[in-house]
């Protein structure tokens, strides 16, 4: 029955007496038989009064006998989003009923996005019938981003100027920013016909944000150097700004909806991308505009290639195989040989990437240096007179992936001449030796000399997925860090025995390989009250206070406090992308550090934190999370370690053969 259980009528009552069925609920159930819309309205109303058993009764038959797509869409159209969420989260609604509810909403989404339905509505936008136009508006507004994509496709394909104007007007009403972004994407990457019409549509808008797109068409049509130079300067500045924004972007949580060009290059399709990857894509778009207008100034070319490589690696950290390399070189240099391209651009692009702290671009250009390379090219990339070339210097890069890729690149170059000598070769050999001993885990260096504290830290680091390495002095820390291992974290006591904390930070930050390593300076763990004090305090609380305090979550959302948990950090935090952030920001104790220069406000991964010594791995969550959010490359995976280890062993064997 659908009534509410009555309260007991007396103290001695042993059974609950149900009330008569609720007339309103019964009436809604009867109305549900009036068709798809009536069923949807009844479900919506029943959810408002929380009549879960009645909802279950109406939805369960749909689980075993799913309605046709059109009928399911009509049911879902009458259920509001709020009531759908309420039903889906109700514990008294069965899983079968919830699956049936999801199915009818999936059917509605499919119906709203149906290309034929959207195209028919678009054609009705220029109808002389107001009713048809009103129906078309409703259909397109309900179609969301799929309707925007359909409108963009029609704008760049139709020859009817009135139709294009109406399409553009509705597109801007549905989602102004997304509509303009879609047209700009077709204007940049579409085929010739689609590009021309997309630019015409953007010209009709007359907005400041699309002037650069109109500038591209103007520069494509003129070869007058005097008129081109001012426009090129504007576009180069736009590329610089976009790249600065990309390098400064944080590895934030969640994805955003963006446009991708379709297979025919005559429209766009919606896709998902991380916000920081979109920042790199925007820089690549700015570079593509310069490439399209034929900006072949060497300095500009370096910036263009840097932006393009950075986006490819940011979007796909494994980018750089033989197929990727060939496609990239062919796309930007046509029939030019890879040797000529690398001889001209490899070192300038690598130097620019390192100077800009653009780690994805550095990895991208290092992976391009591959294939059958001549001895002459190998020597030119490795030798720079009496000084080490930028490629050799990169083996000491702050990011472990970049320095290992540099060492792997040099190993490939020396395959043509294993006895080749150049400035800095000893540094390369040292890096190979270190790579050859890479363990399965990242390293955490612990600056501590008290056995009981060292033991506690070793347990914590094991729980965090790190291999702990002990240093009993700042000098020992410097020696261990100089090896260039994959150091993920340095923790230090407040007062090392041979230097102050500020001097320890100075030593670490002056080393290239230590520049971006997170630093944690810990003070003694907070004093724990004696059992007698705790018992006295507990006795003074009421039972309700005790119950309330026991369920009080901390800033991480964990009841009882995350720092008290003896758990392992999630693998995704150590080895990959972090999907959720429960933390609050913790400021740096500048009284401890001594100078604001160590506030480390850059967006690199080398954050500095001061805090009481944690009791478990969970206490490291915040500093590791903050460090990961500032990095644009994933940390080394176990398979990466094996690959770099094998490369180093082969290189060592190759260069030591008689």
TrEMBL record:
Highest taxon of the lineage: Bacteria
Annotated stretches, region: Disordered: 1-23
Protein's UniProt name: Uncharacterized protein
Source organism of the structure: Rhodopirellula europaea 6C
């Amino acid at each position: 029955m659908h009534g509410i259980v009555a309260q007991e009528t007396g103290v001695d009552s042993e059974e609950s007496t149900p009330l008569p069925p609720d007339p309103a609920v019964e009436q809604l159930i009867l109305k549900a038989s009036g068709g798809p819309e009536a069923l949807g309205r009844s479900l919506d109303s029943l959810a408002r009064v929380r009549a879960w058993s009645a909802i279950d009764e109406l939805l369960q038959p749909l689980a075993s006998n799913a309605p046709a797509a059109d009928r399911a869409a009509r049911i879902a159209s009458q259920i509001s989003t709020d009531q759908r969420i309420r039903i889906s989260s109700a514990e008294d609604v069965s899983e079968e009923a919830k699956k049936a509810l999801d199915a009818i909403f999936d059917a509605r989404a499919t119906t709203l996005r149906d290309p034929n339905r959207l195209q028919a509505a678009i054609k009705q936008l220029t109808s002389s019938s107001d009713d048809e136009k009103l129906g078309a508006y409703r259909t397109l507004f309900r179609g969301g981003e799929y309707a925007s994509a359909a409108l963009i496709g029609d704008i760049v394909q139709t020859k009817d100027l009135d139709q294009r104007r109406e399409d553009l007007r509705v597109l801007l009403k549905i989602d102004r920013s997304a509509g303009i972004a879609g047209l700009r994407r077709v204007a940049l990457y579409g085929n010739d016909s689609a590009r021309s019409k997309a630019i015409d549509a953007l010209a009709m808008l007359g907005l400041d944000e699309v002037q650069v797109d109109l500038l591209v068409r103007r520069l494509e049509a003129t070869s007058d150097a005097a008129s081109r130079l001012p426009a090129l300067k504007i576009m180069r500045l736009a590329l610089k700004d976009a790249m600065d924004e990309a390098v400064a972007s944080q590895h934030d949580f969640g994805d955003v909806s963006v446009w991708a060009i379709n297979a025919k290059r005559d429209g766009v399709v919606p896709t998902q991308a991380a916000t920081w990857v979109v920042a790199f894509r925007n820089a690549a778009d700015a570079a593509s505009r310069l490439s399209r207008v034929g900006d072949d100034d060497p300095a500009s070319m370096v910036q263009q290639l840097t932006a393009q490589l950075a986006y490819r690696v940011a979007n796909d950290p494994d980018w750089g195989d033989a197929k990727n390399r060939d496609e990239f070189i062919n796309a930007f240099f046509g029939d030019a040989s890879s040797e000529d391209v690398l001889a001209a651009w490899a070192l300038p692009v690598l130097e620019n990437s390192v100077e800009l702290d653009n780690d994805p671009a550095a990895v991208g250009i290092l992976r391009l240096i591959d294939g059958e390379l001549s001895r002459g090219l190998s020597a030119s990339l490795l030798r720079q007179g009496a000084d080490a070339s930028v490629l050799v210097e990169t083996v000491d890069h702050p990011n472990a992936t970049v320095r290992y890729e540099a060492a792997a690149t040099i190993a490939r170059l020396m395959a043509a001449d294993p006895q080749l000598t150049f400035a800095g070769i000893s540094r390369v050999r040292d890096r190979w030796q270190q790579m050859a001993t890479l363990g399965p885990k990242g390293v955490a260096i612990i600056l501590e000399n008290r056995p009981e504290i060292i033991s506690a830290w070793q347990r914590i680091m094991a729980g965090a997925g790190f291999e702990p390495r002990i240093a009993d002095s700042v000098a020992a820390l410097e020696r261990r860090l100089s090896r260039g291992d994959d150091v993920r974290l340095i923790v230090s006591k407040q007062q090392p025995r041979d230097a102050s904390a500020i001097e320890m930070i100075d030593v670490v930050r002056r080393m290239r390989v230590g520049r971006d390593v997170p630093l944690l300076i810990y003070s003694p763990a907070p004093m724990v009250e004696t059992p007698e004090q705790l018992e006295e305090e507990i006795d003074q609380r009421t039972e309700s206070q005790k119950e309330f305090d026991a369920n009080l979550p901390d800033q991480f959302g964990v009841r009882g406090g995350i720092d008290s948990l003896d758990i392992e950090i999630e693998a995704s935090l150590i080895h990959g992308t972090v999907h959720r952030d429960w933390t609050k920001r913790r400021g740096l104790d500048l009284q401890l550090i001594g100078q604001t220069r160590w506030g480390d406000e850059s967006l690199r991964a080398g954050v500095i934190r001061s805090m009481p010594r944690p009791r478990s791995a969970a206490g490291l969550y915040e500093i590791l999370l903050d460090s990961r959010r500032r990095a644009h490359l994933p940390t080394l995976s176990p398979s990466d370690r094996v690959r770099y280890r094998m490369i180093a062993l082969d290189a060592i064997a190759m260069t030591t053969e008689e």
